[in-house]
Amino acid sequence: MDRSQTEKLTKDPISKLLLSFCSQTTLSVMLYSFQSLINTYFVAVGVGAYAAGAVALSTPIMLIIGSFASTVGAGGASIISRALGKNDPEKAASTVGNTLLFFWMISSIFSVLGLLLLNPLLELLAVDDVLMPYAKGYTQIILIGAITATGFSSLIRAEGNIRFSIIQWTVSAIVNLILDPLFIFYFDMGVEGAAIATVISQMVSMGLCMYYYFLSKRHVFSIQRRHFQVKPRLMGEILSIGSPALLSQICNSIFLIAFNHRLGAFGGPEAISAFGIVSRLRSFLYMPISGIVQGLQPIIGFNYAAGLHKRMREATHLSLLAGVLYGLFIMLVCLLIPKELIRIFIHEEPIVSIGITALQFIALSFPFMGALTITAAYFQSTGKALFAFVVPVMSIVLIALPTLYILSWLFELQGLWFTYLVSDGITFFMAIILLQLILKRQNGNTKERI
User: Residue 125: which residues within 8 A CB-CB, separation 6 or more?
Assistant: First the structure.
């Protein structure tokens, strides 16, 4: 690996390094999420609020596809960072090849099964007769394009090449932003047009990934045909390290399915449509946290491989602080101007009213939402798969789902909105305690390398 890049990751002041890496990754993920938010805007304005709600109901399917990408991407990125930290470019190159193969195999299988079982799958997601035509038209196109669902920017960032990952996501987002209004308004293709625009933008991102590894000279190790030889042990390592991301996304999908079923019972399609807008807005506002995590991972991976544990702890603590401060900021914004934010997307008064209430209650959880992701990222980056498994399982299965059913049983629709505050608050303190115990134990059992 380039000497200057290695020295930068292992010797630059952590605060400077985090600011440099996280500002770049935050920009890229904000652009990517902005693409999704604008997609929702065009669907809501061009087709209607119910169409936007139907697209939102398809989110668990997209989360599962994304979880496959996150699984192999996070696992592969962790291995690449540590391999380069140990000056082993051959293992890094083989990891890239096996990561690509692994995702293409998994996504192809899921795409076929999803298309064959589309109707019962949408019924499971609480899609009713009003929303079914929109949800079906959108989801089947997304499933067809599932194999292009990621450009593997996590692998590129694992080399320390943040700039190209920003280019990759920026170009993809621009393509989607151009095609969305073209297909929805000019060609009058409705939700199908939005789905086609999304798939084409994914293809562009995938194409840029292929260009990076096979045509450009920007990568720090060479990819050859032999690196695409299937290595079961390496794939198992990728799966083991990345599986917390898969488990987390599957758990999130289960939670969203349960949440939408309760919404349908207490608020009908209006509540589902309102929550669809709020959840997309929440996802967009969450992206800087994701940017912090993505900037943090290569820093932890390199310094862990180099034995610089003090730098890892400092980076983790600064990231947690930044997450809490950012959460407080966006909470205040959502509490002060909820109506203005909701009306960007919809104008139907019953849905707007529900959306305002939902946003205000859900915003109270924002200061807590970064700790879980940062904690899981720490465990993934250091190869501690067991701990990375425990965190998402506890947060969803043992906390979020019981909270959802208890609060909705006691307070019906209003109880649903409070679910995020209660469950995220409990998870926040559990994640902080677990992380501090691990850091303290590591500090006691390892000798700092100077």
Answer: 57, 58, 60, 61, 135, 257, 260
**How many other C-beta atoms lie within 10 A of the C-beta of residue 138?**
27
Contact 282, 416 (CB under 8 A): no
End-to-end CA gap in the chain? 21
Whether the CB-CB separation of 75 and 240 falls below 8 Å is answered with yes
Q: What is the pLDDT of residues 31-45, one digit of tens each?
A: 667 777 778 888 888
Q: Which amino acid is at 1?
A: M
Measuring CA to CA, which residue among 399, 402, 149, 442 is closest to residue 312?
442
Which amino acid is located at 397 in the chain? V
What's at 400, amino acid-wise?
A
Global pTM reads 0.73
Rounded to whole angstroms, the Cα distance separating 235 from 300 reads 22
The total number of residues shown for the chain amounts to 450
Contact present, 15 and 318 (Cβ < 8 Å):
yes
Q: pLDDT by residue (tens digit) across 169-218?
A: 888 888 988 999 999 998 999 999 999 999 999 999 999 988 988 888 77
d(CA 417, CA 233): 44
What is the rounded CA–CA span in Å between residue 85 and residue 76? Answer: 14
Question: 175-182: long-range contacts at Cβ-Cβ below 8 A with a sequence spacing of 24 or more?
Answer: 175/200, 175/201, 175/204, 176/35, 176/38, 176/39, 176/200, 176/201, 177/35, 177/38, 180/38, 180/39, 180/42, 181/42, 181/46
Q: Which helix (H) or strand (E) holds 417?
A: helix 401-445
Q: DSSP letter string over 82-134?
A: HHHHTT-HHHHHHHHHHHHHHHHHHHHHHHHHHHHTHHHHHHHTT--TTTHHH
